[in-house]
Amino acid sequence: MFVNLNSKGDERKTAIILHVSSRSFHILATGVGIYFISQIIRSIFLNVKIIGINPIIAMALTSVLYTINLYYYKRKMGN
Q1: Is residue 3 part of a domain?
Q2: Which of 4, 20, 26, 76 is the most exposed place for a label (fewest CB within 10 A)?
Q3: pLDDT value of position 51
Q4: Residue scoring higher pLDDT (33 or 76)
Q5: Which has more confidence, 3 or 43?
Q6: What is the mean pLDDT of residues 18-29?
Q7: 11-20: long-range contacts at Cβ-Cβ below 8 A with a sequence spacing of 24 or more?
Q8: Model pLDDT, residue 22
Q9: CA 57 – CA 16 distance, rounded (Å)
């Protein structure tokens, strides 16, 4: 997540960070929503205890996803 983005003006840097942040948030929010819905369905129909998400794994997944999106948008928007 610590990548140097200080070339070709502030507008491009701002646009890249805006796109990366919003896309990462949407992907993670959708994934967490699907996970919790599946846990609720499993607990109702299979009488299985609801298991939460490990915060360290969630943070690692967030950083990997953010980094992948950052590299994608840096190449897409020309850098």
Answers
A1: no
A2: 4
A3: 84
A4: 33
A5: 43
A6: 91
A7: 12/77, 12/78, 12/79, 15/77, 16/70, 16/73, 16/74, 16/77, 16/79, 19/69, 19/73, 19/77, 20/66, 20/69, 20/70, 20/73
A8: 92
A9: 25
**Pair of tokens at residue 55:** 């915060």
Cα–Cα dist 68/19, whole Å = 12
What residue numbers bound the domain in which 60 lies?
52-79
32 within a domain of the structure (yes/no): no
Residues whose CB falls within 8 Å of the CB of residue 15, separated by 6 or more in sequence, listed in order: 77
Structure tokens, 39: 């846990």
List pLDDT tens digits, range 33-74: 999 999 999 999 998 888 888 899 989 999 999 999 999 888
Residue 1 domain flag: no
How many domains in the chain? 1
Q: Is residue 58 part of a domain?
A: yes
Q: Is the dihedral of CA 71, 5, 61, 27 positive or negative?
A: negative
